[in-house]
Design goal:
By secondary structure, the chain is α+β, with helices and mostly antiparallel strands. 42% of the residues lie in helices and 11% in strands. The chain is built from 26 helices and 20 strands. The strands form seven sheets. It has a five-stranded mixed β-sheet, with helices on one face. Strands 9-8-20-19-18 form a five-stranded antiparallel β-sheet, with helices on both faces. Strands 3-4 form a two-stranded parallel sheet. A hairpin with a 6-residue loop joins strand 8 and strand 9. It is elongated. The chain starts with a helix and ends in a 46-residue tail after the last helix. In the C-terminal section; belongs to the transpeptidase family. Keywords: Carboxypeptidase, Cell membrane, Cell shape, Cell wall biogenesis/degradation, Glycosyltransferase, Hydrolase, Membrane, Multifunctional enzyme, Peptidoglycan synthesis, Protease, Transferase, Transmembrane, Transmembrane helix. Pathway: Cell wall biogenesis; peptidoglycan biosynthesis.
Length: 768
Amino acid sequence: MAAKKNNQSNSVKDINYYKKKFWRIFAYSLLGVLAFFLFASWGLFGSMPSFEDLENPDSNLATEIISSDGVVIGKYFKTNRSQLKYSDLPKNLVDALVATEDARFYEHSGIDGRGTLRAAFSLGTNGGASTITQQLAKQLFHRGGSSFLPFRIVQKIKEWIIAIRLERQYTKNEILAMYCNVYDFGNYAVGVSSAAQTYFSKDPKDLTIDESAILVGMFNNSSLYNPLRNPVGVKNRRDVVLGQMVKAKMITKSQKEKYQALPIALKFKLESHREGTATYFREYLRDYMKKWVAENKKPDGTDYDIYKDGLKIYTTIDSRMQLHAEEAVSEHMKNLQEQFFIEMKTNKNAPFLNITQAETDRIIMQAMKNSTRWALMKEMDKSDEDIIASFKVKTKMRVFTWKGERDTVMTPLDSIRYFKHFLQSGLMAMEPQTGNIKAWVGGINYKYFQYDHVGQGARQVGSTFKPFVYATAIEQLNMSPCDSILDGPFMIHKGRHNVTADWEPRNSDNRYRGMVTLKQGLANSINTVSAKLIDRTGPEAVVELTHKLGVKTEIPAQPSIALGAVDITVEDMVAAYSTFANQGVYVKPQFLSRIENKSGEVIYEPIPESHDVLNKDIAFAVIKLLEGVTETGSGARLRTEGGGSGDNRWTGYPYMFRNPIAGKTGTTQNQSDGWFMGMVPNLVTGVWVGCEDRSARFKSLTYGQGATAALPIWGYFMKLCYADPGLQVSKSEFERPANLSIKVDCYSRPAVVKDTTQTDQNTDEFEL
């Protein structure tokens, strides 16, 4: 009996012993886990985000370029990611994401206990345990993972800690928005905003349910479920997402069946700085921003980074007008290019005309030295002889054509000649009252031709310079558009106005019209009239006025400038002409409205620059002169419908404009440059057309003159603008100053017609 009691006592002792041991082990384990969490939160197992990091996670956001009508026309990025607010997300995408990735998202505080236990007991075979908040934590602060189990455990614990902190710091909606902003969808698209644009060419708010399901399916594994590479897998994954939405009662079974029947319909568009809308303008803006960040610092003194700071650059460009301008340039240039290729078929030195072999060799050699091939081979320490020899070896390449890119085989030397054939163009449109630039087309294709013919390339302006001469004459000599002048032989003799030899200008058609008004002189672009006017005012006065009009080019004080022997950019020409439309007040062209940081705070707002140049009466008199160009002069085809020589290359003709238009054509010597400057009261547009090299040109005025090369772009552009009522481009009269002191209505001729200028003296054949 004593033995039995002793056994019972030992049994009780053993149970108490194991109980104590269990609770000791449990306590130590709990303390160990708590210590593990505590040490992890202190960063002993690797850095953890601070409070400031959680407030401002490293966003690596793309800078967005936004048009005046609210459209994102481009981005600067290393990672193509745009920030969205929760309100910007479509409800169907949020529903699909929660139903698929984290059904209890709105119930937990960062960690789903039930899901974690399920995953632990099933060893991960019955679904993962990561909540959306944990996935966000991983994306923001802990990308990647280790294959070593202990490290993976540490990483998971750190994710739990960060997830809990995120839940304390942000609302559920903010967490959803952040997760949608950071996920990498492949093809350089990070975040739902970029993914929607890349895969469907639309804003997130416009995504349909099946499109949202495709993107949500990619959250699982964007490499595996890439719509371009794995359409079958993507379709299956989309259907899984739709099934989860049915399970969560977010859509009906019939809706699911309808969407499952749809094919994977993509509208893929890889976002690139070389493609898309306003490519030349975006590159011009990039150069500007490089200077801006050097002069404007963050509050903490560090530099802004346009590639990751998520700035929003609000521009004056109107996306609708920009698209109209690009269409006008594209349609006319491919039409005109066809004619150029036809003319060059019989030219053994195409595309160059009337130049020596030595001059041709110089052009080709310069092109070789400017090429990427030359630069790369120089870095490889190749000799000039070896590099030149490589230009004569046939190779596979992709070239530009107006019917799309084409793969071909040719020597790099032949490709230089091929690309020299292409006519280029520059167009800029601006509001004269504000200086706001509304459209900017610097060339025909930025990917292949990166020289900007709006802000970068100054070209000879021809007769579009003449209004500056007429404006000087009206201001200094008190002349009016109705004053008469003799169109006849004229010479400025050696020594006068610093000319070094007798200068006798001739008209482009080699005939004289006798007595004409100033309005007729400009309408018909009569060279002798411009020469006589600059002889009376002196070239210095014309140069001074032209600089006041905003032209930055250095202009020689020579009489020949009256016929346009001056290189000026399209940007400066548009600004100068805008001064006439703005009642004599020059407004500096403006392409920025404001710059905001990623939080929406305005960090820069430019101050408009303007100054008075001419009084209102003189400016209006010049406008009336320029209206004559489109009424009876070289721009009259804007109003006619009868056609003429080469009318098959007047793209968009007949234009049939009936509203007041002030304009001027310009054609330089040998048809190297064609211009048209066109104005209505609230929009001034300048267009230039020509080849990269001035020796590559049309053989005659039929196609080389500004009225054929450049004017059709303006006409096509304006037709598109007028057909777009939201743009509100004016068809009204130019505002007439009260108590106008200058006679501008020349309907009655004086009884005695006399030359109101002095007789005396030239130019070149710069015309039209």
